[in-house]
Each structure stands twice: as structure tokens, then as C-alpha cells.
Amino acid sequence: MTTIDESTVIAEQETDYGTPRVASDETATVTVDGREVSVPAGTSVMRAAAEAGIEIPKLCATDSLAAFGSCRLCLVEVEGGKGTPASCTTPCSDGMVVRTDTEQVQDLRRNVMELYLSDHPTDCDGCARGSCEMQKWARATGVAEVRYGLDGASHLADTTDHSNPYFDYDPAACIVCSRCVRACSETQGTFALTVDGRGFDSRVSAGGTDFLNSECVSCGACVQACPTDALTERSVVQLGMPTRSVVTTCAYCGVGCSFKAEVQGSGEDTRVVRMTPWKDGGANEGHSCVKGRFAYGYAAHDDRQMEPMVRDSIDDEWRVVSWDEAIAKVADGFRAIQDEHGVGYIGGISSSRCTNEEVYVVQKMVRAAFGNNNVDTCARVCHSPTGYGLNHAFGTSAGTQDFRSVEQADVILLIGANPTDAHPVFASRMKKRLRAGARIIVADPRRIDLVRSPHVEASFHLPVRPGTNVAFVNAMAHVIVTEGLLDEEFVRSRTEGTDGYLEFIAQPEHSPEATESETGIPAPELRAAARLYAAGPNSAIYYGLGVTEHSQGSTMVMGMANLAMLTGNLGREGVGVNPLRGQNNVQGSCDMGSFPHELPGYRHVSRADVRDIYESLWGVTIQPEPGLRIPNMFDSAIGGSFLGLYVQGEDIAQSDPNTQHVEAALRAMELVVVQDLFLNETARFAHVFLPGASFLEKDGTFTNAERRLNRVRPVMPSRVGKDEWQVVCEIATAMGYPMSYGSAAEIMEEIAATTPTFAGVSFARLDAEGSMQWPVTDAAPHGTPTMHVGQFVRGLGQLTPTVYVPTTERANRRFPLVLTTGRILSQYNVGAQTRRTPNSTWHPEDVLEIHPSDAELRGISDGDVVELSSRVGATRLTALVSERMPAGVVYTTFHHPVTGANVVTTENSDWATNCPEYKVTAVQVTVATEASRAEAGEAPEAVSHDMPVGAMARHRR
Amino acid sequence: MSGDVPPVVRLGHDLVRNFEALPPEKAAEEIATHIKKFWEPRMRRDLVARVRAGEVDDPLLAKAAEDLLEGDVDREEVKEPSGG
Ligand code: SF4
Ligand code: SF4
Ligand code: FES
After folding, report:
1. What CATH number has the domain spanning A311-382+585-754?
2. pLDDT, tens only, A528-565
3. Which candidate in A382, A604, A913 is best for mutational testing of the B interface (most B CBs within 10 A)?
4. Rounded CA gap, B47 and B12, in Å?
5. Has residue A248 got a pLDDT over 70?
6. What does the angle CA A159 – CA A160 – CA A163 come to, to the nearest 5 degrees?
7. Which of A393-397, A519-523, A700-704, A931-935 has the lowest mean pLDDT?
């Protein structure tokens, strides 16, 4: 089992340089207190001093925010200069000589500090605990006592705001340095906080209400920035300060933020005190969202299943057994099915929530121990069209840029993605760029936050009707080609299939005017948007599941690739085609050979040269034909030709479309094995339950949406006694194929040795470099932030005529509305984790958003329980009448099993990858009658009226 | 309801809709290549059997099944990475 390094003792080891790093080719050399230091020109004196190892006292400055210069604690003397400038706002100039410790400076600082302390509680818990910096600076400035007296006017009696479930705001400890206010605007981009009042009366305020009811999205940036105890994690108040820390990676979304898990205790008694965003994290650069920052409590939740369990029939009670017995039951059961029916009657599903190493081992178990290729991963139901489409066009199944690239974008074309909810930390980076002047085109049926929110105003909102994406992207390309807006040099020198494509796309049927009735986008708007995208000069496409989860998901991905190639927006910073991947390791799980037709590194099983690599290493024969995809497994199960399934950390019964069909398939199987943290919906149909480990217990890597391999490091040993990869190895071994590794690092060694794009990856190198973006090869030993520079991976880029084929799932008389699905900020996918945290404060149930006119027509009012039905099923939800929806389209999330959004979604799927068409289901919505309620059992609770009305609940408005 | 259509035929129809804008010969080959590349052999056999039994009335799908039987697929394309 994984060994845990508990040696990292938390100290003030993360230097706060006071002001952000400056990028400049020129350097300035300055002398601070006799020490010479060279810094990029434009660097503040404060930062230069910090780099020379000299810490200048500061209150209003921190290196995640632009200098503000308000507290006057950081004064210095500059030789030959006048007065005592604030070091945070004074840029270094070459040859400057600075003194930080003269008597005059010390006197001034002492005065400032005394003033601050006169309005700071003497019994500040934070000072005692070490979570408040005041004590430290008092000591540093030599303030032993406060001369102004504590009995004057103060804010010490102000009451604490406990409304946010994760942090408290205690105005008494606030020094109005405005770091929180600036963090909320600069870092997060939400502008929820203001400084109200003037002078002594000024106070930080969450828009005049409490935090929960404000626009606050609970990202934690203000808590991180606060130098005092005014904003403190509730967990720190309750548990005290952490004693050691481990840098690891968030296990929620595909942004892949790095965090410092700060903990107390050791071994099995380890307790997480808080997760703080890691400044050096390549994906997040010190920022976080409410999920990664606060919603980790599920890992210690009582619902967590800690022991293996078995039962003979799904109607029996579970029986707790030893690991040995459970593993024997799995191995014997699978072998019995194969002996009786055939090798191909069993298979496995790997999870995008698990590490690369765990996923690799699952596909190895299937190919080597099961002896077939029946392995698939949950990317099947989200981003498989991304892999297919981008590979087809460019030769790589991944996004083209790193996240930082957005800082160079001039025009952002956002399609079918809602980053402020689903990829919040990247959204903050995007919003920062938009505030700096970049423009954004939003193509989405809903009026998402990025259409209009504080300091963001989309140049165009194109409300593309669900199911018509390809018609839309073709119209964009048509304008670019027929109006001569293309980058001819790029198209001529870097693409193929060019003539055929140009001829195809210039046909009048693709014009905005011809497609307007289909897409719902006014032609003049679309033309103007296409011109803006073509004008760039740097235009970048970002997209999400609103692109992939369609019957033409793969075609649409190729269509966007066409658009980028036509305009030359590839192969440099600020451009590209960028999938915002859903799950933390969806990129990685695909890379690791989880698809039934491809070995690791996307190499088809029919290639003898590739099979050779694995056959000689593993000592088995690998089937040269593809195996079953997830939906094929279900169909085969119902047809009687698939009887045993191992499912790693995925809740197919809740997340996959057409729940009745999935349940029928699971019921038809003889042996279903679920490995998970919780007894999820799928476990209702399982015969063996194997307890899983949480990310806090894992050693390994996740690969985020920018192809970045981040280390996942365990903060405690597996609470169930085994690592997940170890369990998989033991199943394989019990089936007669011995499989074992000494550590997760060894698994990565095997991946690197067999997969060219990962050749240079190892845990040791990742630990040394922080993170790396694949391909990591001899030619790119530190990884590849931007792909396709100068040449595409496949050589020339492939322009493909993207024929628009309307989905067969059309609104009709019986089902006149179109349902589309998505997710919201506070919850994550099927909610297995977030529902087990206070995040449910913001989203206690899934609701159905419906346009006022559609609601009125049906006599539906806000808060009514409605029945949502499609041709495959019906469910009930609470209605939310919302102007965000276009007429004719309704929307819901799928975070709660009770509402079962997938009861109504259909078996339709992307033609190429079978990614389900979640985003288009023809439905009818009616007010639920008593009879229909009784039939379906308990009605969902009506909207509770003490719900927060702030930004997190905005979907309700 | 499409639930009554055998899964392989439903999936086959999806491919037909996507490729039918191409000339028929080319379309059939593309469909056959796709099936060769992504479908598990039992599914392929199921489709071919249904075509032979006259259960598939779509001529393009029937032609694709024939191509498949005769190995009329783009073998180079089958080996190419797909990533989905
Ligand atoms: S937690 Fe809320 S108030 Fe604080 S920075 Fe984030 S959004 Fe702003
Ligand atoms: S943005 Fe994604 S990866 Fe980052 S903290 Fe939030 S959920 Fe985790
Ligand atoms: S830290 Fe420089 S003025 Fe506050």
C-alpha cells in the first residue's frame, strides 16, 4: 500500500512577495539593506526585497493582488529620493539603493501599527492561533503596547456573520485593508464585496446583506487574502491551525486546481483542517472555487462505505466480508461467466474521477486478465466527441492550449459551456481577460452569466437552438469564406481537404440567412459575430458539453476546428480550440487506453506493432478487435450477451441516459461489481461492493483539460485498507493473471515506458517540475503548453465538410419543448460528493427552468411541482420560471437522484462515439396532479422560501 | 418507438444519416470502415445477419454490411488513432 510522507510541516513556508510577479525582458538591479538583487523591470521594491530575503511589514499588499498602497506600513527610504515611499507601489529602477530599517522608517511604521491595533481586539483568537498577521507585524514593528487606548471608538462590538457555511466574517477583526474586496474583484471577478462608509466608519460589506444572500459564490479568495482573522475558515475556528500540509490536486472538475491540503494529526487520525489553493499550481495559480476549496467533507462522511460487501441477489441484504472473500467472489464469478458463455461476456468501466494509474490498471486488467477489450470510461458520456473530432482535424485528442493562453486572447468564442458554474477557476481567468478588453461571443441557448455580469458584457449572445450546433458553426464558416475573411496563407500551407471543404461551405444553404430558421440565430447577429471572430487577431474557442452531448457532437468539434483553421487561429498563444473538460481526469482516463478500440496513447488495437509492446511486457495475447462501448454493454446485457461488469467510481445508473434502459441492463447481468466511496445508485444493482479511497488517500496523477499532469498526493493512508489499483491487481491475480506493483509511481513508469507521449513523465520529474503538459518527450522535455506550432501533429490540418444532420429527437405535438441539461456551481455531476457537504445549502434540489411564456401557457407558476415527460419516461421537479431560458427550451441539472433527470433522456447518441444526446430531449411539462404524484411516490419538497437569493441561487431567478 | 429497433440497426441508421450526403459507394465504404474500426465483432455479425435476413431496409446500410463482409474498408483509416 502507498506510504505517506508526513514530513512536510506547515510553517510560513510560502513566501508572500507582496506584489505580483512582473513579466519583463529587462531587469533592474537594486540594493536593499546592502543586498544586491536583480528583478524584472517594473517589479516593486517590496517584491525585490522579499526576493533578497528581506520581509517588509505589510497589511494591504499580498502577491496575488495589484498593489494598493493604503496601509502605509511598508514604508522605506530610497537613497537620493524624497520622503518614505510605500515599497509596494514603488517600482525598482536600476541602481536604486533602498533601506528598509532606518530609524525614521521604524518610527513611522510603529505609529501606523499602533493605530491599527487600537481597533483590533486584544483577545483576537486569530492572533493567539496564528491565523491573524497582526500579532506578527506588531512584533516586527516593535509595538509592545497601544498608546491610543482601546476605549475609544472601535468596531470591536460588531457581530460576526456566520451565514456562509464555510467561513465567518468578523468585522471586529477587520482592518479595512480591502484585500478581500480586491480579491473578489481582481481574482474571482464577482464584485460581491465593497467598502461601505468613509474614514473610521468604513466597513467591508457583502453588498449590504450577509454573505449567503449576497452575490458571493464562496470561492474563498477573500478568506485567502485576508491578513487578519476577519475572514476565517470555520474549520480553523473549530479545529485550530493545521500542523502539516501536502500539495495535491482537486478531485472535482477538469480545471485541475492545485491545493495545499492542510491537516492535523497523522496516520489514520489525520484530519483535514482546510484546503488552500496553491500559488504555484499551473492551472489555478492560487485561486479556487467553492468545491475544491471547501467541499471536501464527503471524504470523511458517515455514508462512506468502509468494508467490502457481497450478496447473491440484488434483492438480498448486503453481507460484510473480508477483502479476500470479496475479491474471490469477483474473480470466481467473472471466470464462471466466461467459462459458461465466453470470454467476451464481461467487461469493465473505468472512471474519470480516478487517477491515471488506477485507470491504466483497470484497462490492463480487462485486456490481460479478462482477455477482451470490453473496457470503456465515463468520457464516453461526456467528451468522447472531443477526442474524436480534434484527433480527426489535428491529430491529437486534446485541447490545443494551456489555460494561461486566454491572457493573450482578443476574442473568445464560447460555445455550449458555462464556465462560471462548471469551470469556475478558469472562468475567473477568462473574466480577468475580458475586463482587460477582450471580447466574448456566447453561443448558448441560455443566457448564462457570461452574457452579462459585473464588468462582463458579451458582444453577442447567439441563442443557438439545441440540436442545431452544426448548422450554426457552418454558418459562421460560410461567412468567413464567402466574405473573404479567411487566413489564406494558413489555409494554403497548413490544411488539406481544402478545396472540397471551401466549395462545400460556400454553398448558399449554409448561409446565416438560410439557417436562421433552424438555429434561431438572427442572421445579422451571426454575420457580425463571425466577422468579430475572424478579425481576432487572436481568437480562441472554448467549449463544453453543450457541444459534445449531441447526435452530431463529433461533427461539431470538427466544425469548430474548421473555423479555427480557416482563420489561422492555431499554433500560438491566445488562440486554439479548447475543450473545458468535465471531470478532473477525463483527459487522463482517455489517454490511459480506456477506450475499447484503443490501447494507451490512442493506438488502435488492430495495430500489431502496438499490441507487441504490451503483449511482450504483459505476457498475454491482446485481442486485435475492438470491445464494447458502455451503451453497447447495456444493449448486449439486455440481449443476453453481456453478463458481468466491474464499475470503477462511476454511477452509471444515475449519470447515463435513459435510466430505465440502464437499470434493465444492470438487472440482466449476473455479476455487477461496484467500487466506490458510497453505495450509489448503481450499487442497488450490484452483487459485490468494493470500498474505494478518496482523493485524500491517493497517490497518483490527474490530467486536466490543458493536458497538464498534476500530482495527487495522499495526506492519509487509504481508509479502507487498500489502494484502488491494488484491489484491481488482486482481482486480476485471483483470475489467474498475476498483476502487482510496488507503488503508483511504478505504474507511471510502465505508462511512460510504453506510451510515446508520456515518455518523459515520472513522479520524480513531476515532483521536481510541479506539473507537465503532455506530450513530454525528448523534443519537449518539459512538456507542451501550446500544440501544433508550425505543424499539426497529423501533419496538415484536416478540413472536413461538416454536413448538418438534424437530430431525430425533434419537438412535436406530444412533446413540444426541448429539454437540455447542465450543472451548477455548488454541485458536481451526480452530486455523490457535493450533496454530502454544506454545498447543498445553495442547491438543495434540481429545478426545472422554464421560460415565462411556456410556463404561462401551461398554468405553471414559480415553485410548482411539475411533471416532466419524454417518450421514454417521466419525472417530477420544482419549476423555476426564468427569463434566462429561451421560449421552447427547458433546462435542469442532474445532481440529485430523487429527481432523476436521466429518466427522461433518450438512447440517442453521437453518430461517431455514442456520446449520449443529453442536450436534446423532446419533452412536455405539466403541473403535477395529485394522481401523478401519488403514482410516482413522494413529491419533491416545494421550493423552500428561506433559500439564499444571491448569486449561487441565481439559477432560480 | 426506436426502442423496438435492434440496437445495431439504430446505430447503423445514425451512421447512414451522417454519411448519406456522400456518393453512395463512398458512403458505404465510410460506414463499413467506421463499423470495422469501432464495433465489437459480435455487433458486426449481428448487423450482417440482420441484413441477410432482410431485416434492414436501408440500402446504404445493407451495402455497408456487404462491404464489411468483403473487407471493403479503408484499412489504413482503421489503424489511425481516433481518440473517441
Ligand atoms: S468568497 Fe465570496 S466574497 Fe469572497 S472573494 Fe469569493 S465571491 Fe467574493
Ligand atoms: S475549478 Fe474545478 S478543479 Fe478548481 S477548485 Fe473548482 S472544482 Fe476543483
Ligand atoms: S503594504 Fe504597502 S501600503 Fe499597505
Report:
1. 3.40.50.740
2. 999 999 999 999 999 999 999 999 999 999 999 999 99
3. A604
4. 8
5. yes
6. 130
7. A931-935
Give the ligand whose atoms come closest to the C-alpha of residue A133.
3
The residue among A376, A906, A910, A633 whose CA lies nearest residue B34 is A910
Separation of CA A89 and ligand 3 centre (Å) = 8
Closest partner CB to A803 (pick from B21, B81, B84): B21
- Whether the per-residue pLDDT at A154 is higher than 70: the answer is no
pLDDT for residue A90: 97
Give distance in angstroms: CA of A422 to centre of ligand 2: 9
pLDDT attached to residue A106: 94
Query: Hey, where are the domains in chain A?
Result: 27-141, 167-300, 311-382+585-754, 384-579, 817-956
Q: Tell me which of A16, A45, A55, A72 to substitute to probe ligand 3's pocket, judged by most ligand atoms within 8 Å of the beta carbon.
A: A72
pLDDT at A81 over 50: yes
Instruction: Identify the residue whose cell numbers are 454573505.
Output: A211
Cross-chain CB nearest to B41 (options A395, A603, A625): A625
CA distance B18 to A370: 34
Residue B72, phi-psi category: left (phi > 0), alpha (psi -120 to 50), beta (remainder): beta
Q: Does domain A27-141 have CATH number 3.90.1150.10?
A: no
Q: Do A817-956 and A167-300 fall under one CATH topology?
A: no
Q: Is the CB of A216 under 6 A from ligand 1?
A: yes
Return the residue matching grid coordinates 429539454: A819
Q: Which ligand lies nearest the alpha carbon of A163? A: 1
What is the pLDDT, as a whole number, of residue A162? 95
B42 Cα to chain A: minimum distance (Å)? 9
CB atoms within 10 A of CB A172: 18
Q: Is A733 helix (H, G, I), strand (E, B) or coil?
A: helix
Please give the CATH topology (third level) of the domain spanning A384-579.
Answer: Dimethylsulfoxide Reductase; domain 2 (3.40.228)
Question: Which residue has the least CA distance to atom 1 on ligand 2?
Answer: A425
Pick the CATH number of A167-300 from 3.40.50.1100, 3.30.360.10, 3.30.70.20, 3.40.190.10: 3.30.70.20
**Per-residue pLDDT tens digits for A780-827:** 999 999 999 999 999 999 999 999 999 999 899 999 999 998 877 777
* Residue among B11, B33, B38 with most chain A CBs within 10 A, to mutate: B38
What's the average model confidence in pLDDT over A433-457?
Answer: 95
CB contact under 8 A, A604 and B80: yes
Work out the mean pLDDT of chain A and round it to a whole number.
91
Q: How many CB pairs under 8 A join A and B?
A: 101
Separation between Cα atoms, residue A368 and residue A609, nearest integer Å? 17
Are A168 and A161 in contact by the 8 Å Cβ rule? The answer is: yes
CA distance A916 to chain B (A): 12
| CATH level 2 (architecture), domain A817-956 | Beta Barrel (2.40)
Q: How far is the CA of A931 from the centre of ligand 3 (A)?
A: 66
Query: Angle at the Cα of A224 (from A195 to A703), degrees rounded to 5?
Result: 135
Interface probe with A: pick from B16, B31, B40, most Cβ of A within 10 Å = B40
pTM metric for this prediction? 0.93
A222 CA to middle of ligand 3, Å? 17
Confidence bin at B1 (pLDDT 50/70/90): very low
Ligand 1 atom, smallest distance to A220 CA: 1
